[in-house]
Amino acid sequence: ATLTQDGLEPGRTSLTCYGSRGRMDAGATADLIAARERLCKALRVTEPGPLRLGLLEAVGLTPEDCRHAATLERRRMRDAGLRPGMSPVERRKRIEAVLPQAGEPWAPPGRCATLWLILAEALENGHDAAGAELVHEITEAGSVR
Questions:
Q1: Which of 7, 94, 101, 138 could pair covalently with 107 via S-S, beta carbons 3.0-4.6 A apart?
Q2: How many CA atoms lie within 13 Å of 90's alpha carbon, on the beta-carbon side?
Q3: What three-state secondary structure class fits 132?
Q4: How far apart (Å, rounded) are the C-alpha atoms in residues 128 and 21?
Q5: Longest dimension (CA), the chain
Q6: H or E stretch including 24?
Q7: Confidence (pLDDT) at 134
């Protein structure tokens, strides 16, 4: 699964965690933004390849921070209110209401949570983050990192 760096950067994408009843959780959102900022600091200076243990430690990430961030990423998901028997048109309308605007950088919550768990495991076991690699992909729109 692929995540783009711009989809992870807090200032480039809407980043909101929700609590019970679908209300914004300001504290959880602030915690996730802080974790994402540390991760993005590492991503901005790393070379293509696996995310290095020393770099993750240098930006202040800990296994506990990463596991907490994984939980918070899942709290970005909103309930679209889908019900059995709903028409395809109504289903699409409800799904579109909880997704970001078209063209906005976005990193799916499940993929982000998985990334954080990979980083937590690397930090706990003292090795580079195997399974989390920075690559440069050339597209029609230019280089994607």
A1: 7
A2: 7
A3: strand
A4: 39
A5: 52
A6: none
A7: 65
Global pTM value: 0.83
pLDDT tens digits, one per residue of 115-138: 999 999 999 999 999 877 666 666
**Is 14 strand, coil or helix?**
coil
90 secondary structure, DSSP code = H
CA 4, 8, 11, 13 dihedral sign is positive
Which two tokens mark 126? Answer: 């003292």
Question: What is the C-alpha to C-alpha distance for residues 1 and 15, in angstroms, rounded to an integer?
Answer: 20
Place of tokens 């954080």: 116
Question: Does the pLDDT value for residue 29 go beyond 70?
Answer: yes
Domain count, the chain: 1
Run of H or E including 139: strand 137-139
**Token match 């059995």: residue?**
84
